[in-house]
C-alpha cells in the first residue's frame, strides 16, 4: 500500500486546524500535536520544529533561460527527552502512521543515549516571542510572477554585458525568491510560528583580455521593493570583474591589508565561530576563558542583534522558544558575552543568549542572530588613502582558518594600493596571520556597514599580515 | 543490481503506467527529454562528546524531482510527497519550460540492465542495531583519550545513509539503485600548558559496519586524530612564499580535485568559462602525470553504479601523460557538445538539478620511491594532511589548506609547521610535477564536494608527488624564522 497518502494535514489534524487559520498557524497545530503524542508515548519532555517553504529560482545565460525551478517542501523535526537522555528525528512525511513511527523510534533511540545533566528544554520563564513586526515577510515576494523574476535576471545580465567590450561572456544571471513558514512548540506549553520571505538577484559576468576573470554582484532583501535595480547590480558586477583583469602575483611581504565590505564579514564570521558556546565549553576556541578581558583594540565593537527589522538573522524567537534580543559580544575591545543556546549555557553556568539555531535534523546548535561589527568613523576612501603600500582584498578562497589556535591563512585576490590609490590587480597570493593578533591590529573601521547576510562588517584596515606570493 | 529494484513499486504502489503518465505530463507542452528521480533516503547519526552519547538522530527524506529539457533549457520541479497527484502537478510545473505541442514518448520504458554492483552490502547499516553503531563511537572516544594524556577533548561522530533511487527517462530507461554510505569521524583537541591544537581523522565508504575492522577499526581513526593534535603542539610558523612542495599520498589528492577536476567539468567548458576551455589535446601536466576520474572503484565513497541521470559510471582518463583528454560529462552537456556521457551527472538529492561532478579522482602511480622524492628536496615543504580546498574556475586559481606539514631541510623532514594554505594555478601547476611516487593511495573516504550549493560525496587519491614551485601561505618569510 502507498505510504504517503496524505499531504500536510491528516484527518486528525484537520479537526484541529480550521480553514480560517493561516498556514503558519496550521504548522503550529501540527507541532503541538506531535509534542502531545510524544508525551503520551512516554517522553518526559519534547519539542518540535516544523518548516515549510515555497521556492522559485531561475538562471539565465546570455539572455536565454537556462533553468526554471519551482517547488514546495516541508519537514518536521522532533526532539524528545527521557529524563536526562534525549534523541531526535526528522521526516518530510506528515501522515499519521509515519509520525507515530517517528515518535516510537525516537523514544527507542533516547533509551540508548547517555544521561546528560545539561540537556533539556529551557526554563519555562525564559520562553516567549517578540510580538511586534520584525519585517520578516513581504507580500511583494509571494506575489512575484515568473516573468518578473526572469526580467530582473535578464536586465542585470544585459547591463553587465553592455558595460564594457571586454565583458564577453557570462556564467549566468540568477533570481530566486522564497517564502518560508516555521513553527515551534514544546511540552512546556510554548507554541509559536512566523513566516518570512527572501529574494535575491545576481549576475556573474566573465571578462577577457588576455586571461579570463569572473566576479559577481547581487542584491538581496526580504522585500522585492528593497532590491537594487537590476541595472545597478549588472554594472557593479561588470566593474568588479573588469578590475581583476591583468592580475599579478606579488613578492612575499608584510603590508597593511584592507578587507572590503564583501570580505570583511568573513573575518567577523570567524569571530562568531570563536564565541559560540559549544566551541567555548570544549576549549575549541582561541577566545576560551577570555570573558570580560580585552581581546581586541578599542575600535572593535561587535553586536548580535535578533531584532533588526528585516535582518537575515532576525526572528521573534530562537530554535528553543527564547525571545529575540540584542547581545553585545565585544564592546570597545572587551569580550562581554559568548553566544549560547540552552545546552551550552548550562555547560558554562550562564544564561542563554537566544542563539539556538535549528533546522529539522538534530538538536539545536548555536547560530548567529544579526552578528556584526559596528561602523567606525572612516569612509572607505579615507581608509584607502591612508595606505602608502598595501593590499585591498576583494576575494578570499579556501578554508585555512583554525578557530582553536586562531591561525589564519587564506587564498586572496584584490587590488594593490600605492600612495592611497589602486595601482593594479593582484591574484594567486595568500594572506596569513592569527585572529587574536588581527583583532588587536584593526587600525581603521569603515562607516560603510551594510547588512547583506546574517553576518556583516564594514571596510577594515588590519596591519601585520603576511601576504605570500612569489 | 542491489536490492532496490522493486522498492518504489512495493513500498509506494508505483507502477510502470505511473511512470509513463508522469513523463507524459512532463512533456505535455513539448521538450526533447524528461526524467524522474525518485529518492527515499534514511539517515542516522550519533555523537559522542565529553565521553557522553549526546546525540542520536534519525530521519527520512523522500521525494521526486522532475526535469524537462527543451533545447539548452531545463525546467525543474520536485515534491516531497510521492502521491500520484502531487507528482503529476510537479511534472506539469517542470514542463512549463517548453512551449510547443505535446511530445509523446514513443519509447517503451524498460529496465536498464546493470552491468555491475560496486557496493554489495550484506547487511545495510540501517538494519543494524543502534548499539553496534554506538560501539564504534564509544571505542573511538576511549582510544583517542588513551593515546596521550594531553588529549583533552574528543568528539566522535557516526553517520550513515541508505538511499534508494529510481530514475526513469523519456528515452525509455528505467534504472534503480541502492546506495549505502557510512562514515566515522573523530575530532580531538590537545592541550599542553597554554597551547591548544586540534586533530581530525575519519573514514568510510559505500559499505556496511564491517568496514570498521582490522586496519580501519575505530581505534585506528581515533589514534590518527590524536596523533595529529599532538604533533601540532610542536608546530612552528609555516613558511611563506614559493618553494618546492612534496605532497604525501592519499587525501592530498585534493590538489587534483581543485586544480583540474572542477575545471574539467563539461558545463564550465561548453560555456567557455573554465580556465581549461579550449585546451583539449593540449599539454596541461608534465608527461609523468596521468589523472583519471573513476566512479567504478568498489565500495568507495565517490563510486556509483549509475550516476543520478541513470548512466552507468565509468573510468575516464582526464589527463594522459600530461595531455588533456576528456571532460566530465552529464547528459545535457554531452548532448550540446555532441559527445558521449561519462556517468558524471550527479545531484545532491531529488531537490536538485543534476550537473557534471567528479566521482573518485586520482593520479596513477609513477616510478619514484617516496623516500627518494623527499631526499631530492633541499628546502621545501612536505604536506601530508589537508583540510578543504576551493577553486576559481574561470581564472584557474585554486587553494588547499595543509593541516599537517613539515619542513624539508637537506632531504629530511624536520620541524612540523602550522597549517597553511597553498595556492596555485590549475592549468599550469601539474606541468611543474617533477616526480611521481610508486605509492598511489586513495583517501580514507571523507570527501564531500560542493558546487552551486549542492554537496555530493567524492573520493580523491594521489601518490607522493613533487611540485617544483607552489606558493605556501604561512607567516614566516623564507630564510628567516622557519628554516633554521
Describe the secondary structure blueprint for this structure.
The complex is a heterodimer of chains A (470) and B (484).
Chain A (H helix, E strand, L loop, with lengths): L10 H6 L6 H18 L4 E17 L2 E19 L2 E7 L4 H17 L26 H4 L3 H17 L4 E20 L4 E19 L1 E4 L2 E5 L8 H13 L10 E7 L4 H12 L1 H5 L20 E4 L20 E6 L2 E2 L6 H6 L8 E2 L7 E2 L3 E4 L6 H6 L3 E9 L9 E12 L2 E14 H6 L1 E4 L9 E2 L3 E9 L2
Parallel strand pairs in A: 8-15, 14-19
Antiparallel strand pairs in A: 1-2, 1-4, 2-3, 4-5, 5-6, 5-7, 8-20, 9-10, 9-14, 10-11, 12-13, 15-16, 16-17, 17-20, 18-20
Helix pairs in contact in A: 5-6
Chain B lengths: L6 H6 L3 H11 L6 E17 L2 E19 L2 E7 L4 H12 L14 E2 L18 H18 L3 E19 L3 E20 L2 E11 L12 H16 L5 E9 L6 H8 L4 H5 L20 E4 L20 E6 L2 E2 L6 H7 L7 E2 L8 E2 L3 E4 L6 H6 L3 E13 L5 E13 L2 E6 L2 E6 H4 L3 E4 L4 E2 L4 E5 L2 E9 L2 E9 L2 E2 L7
Parallel strand pairs in B: 4-6, 8-15, 8-24, 14-22
Antiparallel strand pairs in B: 1-2, 1-5, 2-3, 5-6, 6-7, 8-23, 9-10, 9-14, 10-11, 12-13, 15-16, 16-17, 16-18, 18-23, 19-23, 20-22, 21-22
3D architecture notes:
- The complex is a heterodimer of chains A (470) and B (484).
- By secondary structure, chain A is an alpha+beta fold.
- Chain A has helices spanning 11-16, 23-40, 96-112, 139-142, 146-162, 230-242, 264-275, 277-281, 342-347, 380-385, 435-440, and strands at 45-61, 64-82, 85-91, 167-186, 191-209, 211-214, 217-221, 253-259, 302-305, 326-331, 334-335, 356-357, 365-366, 370-373, 389-397, 407-418, 421-434, 442-445, 455-456, 460-468.
- Chain A has two domains: 11-226, 2-Layer Sandwich (PmbA/TldD fold); 247-470, no CATH class.
- In chain A, β4 and β5 form a beta hairpin.
- Chain B is of the alpha+beta class.
- Chain B has helices at residues 7-12, 16-26, 84-95, 130-147, 218-233, 254-261, 266-270, 331-337, 370-375, 426-429; strands at residues 33-49, 52-70, 73-79, 110-111, 151-169, 173-192, 195-205, 239-247, 291-294, 315-320, 323-324, 345-346, 355-356, 360-363, 379-391, 397-409, 412-417, 420-425, 433-436, 441-442, 447-451, 454-462, 465-473, 476-477.
- In chain B, the strands form four sheets. In chain B, strands 1, 2, 3, 4, 5, 6 and 7 form a seven-stranded mixed sheet that branches. In chain B, strands 9, 10, 11, 14, 20, 21 and 22 form a seven-stranded mixed sheet that branches. Chain B has a five-stranded mixed barrel with strand order 8-15-16-18-23.
- The longest helix of chain B is centred in the N-terminal third of the chain and has 18 residues, at 130-147.
- Classes of the chains: A alpha+beta (470), B alpha+beta (484).
- At the A-B interface, β2, β3, α3, β6 and β16 of A face β1, β2, β3, α3 and α4 of B.
